[in-house]
Amino acid sequence: MLLTNPVLISVCLMYILCLFRFNILLAILLSGIVAGIMSGFNLIHTMEILINGMQGNLETALSYILLGAVAAAISGTNLTAILIHKISSILSSKKIIFVLTIAFIACFSQNLIPVHIAFIPVLIPPLLNIMNKLKIDRRAVACALTFGLQAPYVSLGVGFGLLFYNILKKELANNSVIVSIADIQSVMWIGGAAMFCGLICAVLFYRKSRQYVNLEKSMDETFSLHMGKKEWVVLIGAAVTFGIQIYTSSIPLGGLLGLLFMIVFGGIDYNKVQEVMDNGMSMMAYIAFIMLVAAGFGAVLRESGGINELISVASALSGGKFGGALLMLLIGLLVTMGIGTSFGTIPIIAAIYVPLCINLGFSVSATILLIGIAAAIGDAGSPASDSTLGPTSGLNADGQHDHIYDTCVPTFVFFNIPMIIFALIFSMII
């Protein structure tokens, strides 16, 4: 049964194609078609499902493009050099401390100032030359960024974490398990602890020097540190972008109004608007299209019925608490890697996982932990997740960072494996 499961086969195919450096966009499309055909859909119907499903990530795709334009506008001013100068003063010349500081800063994007991936194209590209001088392995930085994008929402019930916890609480309630946010918080810290252990292991593993080429002159040689009118307008425009995003919970609206503010008040010269948009597109459009196609792939997986089949197999083959927990986690890993979002995985798995946990004798706390971690694993390591696409968009600004081998593989190994181990151990004892 598993050998013909469309979800299992298509997700494995996607990852294998990516590992062989096949184009990511085509890999996701082909995997979606395979899932549809294996489910009994004809080719035309499969493409219809895939295309209709793409609307699920339209907002995210538009967000990427507009935020890329904001980043391009910032890079066209002295703010880039000023940013480097200011951040350099708090970043250590010691590689490990440097990478851990990036992880610490990234954590703010999920909770304190919930801008998610918006900070990456602004913060990371200007720091690449500094990383090159220190010979920092960018795989460690990719792990630091992914940690900052995922660990806070997994372990803390504020910002995006509160959204994650509310979805988990709702789906548990839909299956007759009533819990509070405090109950969820009391166990989900275990996922964050697992990711922190993974981060430390990644930083130590990638501590050796890695050589990169500086493709541009140092910012200090090209720009001054003077704040002129244009710099102030762009800085305020960036604040408008993030402020509106936080107030309205709409990243595209924030990006659009921030850009308009910069244009109206002279932060972006009118005759350079096209150039700024072109630069933003070149930076982020490819990733935006990957997100669109990933949403379509997720729609095909949901329509295939293969997810429910996998969950049924887990129920039948569990054979005990440990085996059941392991199967639930592995299936959650497959589903999240396929659809690219932990938030979307919870409703898919909760309906079967809750009664399965009860039948196997897991406590309420262990049930929360298993479902929460089963949804979260796979966000790191998935080629279609913004938790990996975001770091790549910044680290590959000079074309020297591979999405699969420098972001997806390291984050998969150093975060998913510890989360599975921690979830298995703690689900047995709480």
UniProtKB/TrEMBL annotation:
<feature type="domain" description="Na+/H+ antiporter NhaC-like C-terminal">
    <location>
        <begin position="145"/>
        <end position="424"/>
    </location>
</feature>
<protein>
    <submittedName>
        <fullName>Transporter</fullName>
    </submittedName>
</protein>
<keyword id="KW-1003">Cell membrane</keyword>
<feature type="domain" description="Putative Na+/H+ antiporter N-terminal">
    <location>
        <begin position="5"/>
        <end position="90"/>
    </location>
</feature>
<dbReference type="InterPro" id="IPR032813">
    <property type="entry name" value="Na_H_antiport_N"/>
</dbReference>
<dbReference type="GO" id="GO:0005886">
    <property type="term" value="C:plasma membrane"/>
</dbReference>
<dbReference type="InterPro" id="IPR052576">
    <property type="entry name" value="AA_Transporter-Related"/>
</dbReference>
<dbReference type="Pfam" id="PF03553">
    <property type="entry name" value="Na_H_antiporter"/>
</dbReference>
<dbReference type="Pfam" id="PF13726">
    <property type="entry name" value="Na_H_antiport_2"/>
</dbReference>
<keyword id="KW-0472">Membrane</keyword>
<dbReference type="InterPro" id="IPR018461">
    <property type="entry name" value="Na/H_Antiport_NhaC-like_C"/>
</dbReference>
<keyword id="KW-0812">Transmembrane</keyword>
<keyword id="KW-1133">Transmembrane helix</keyword>
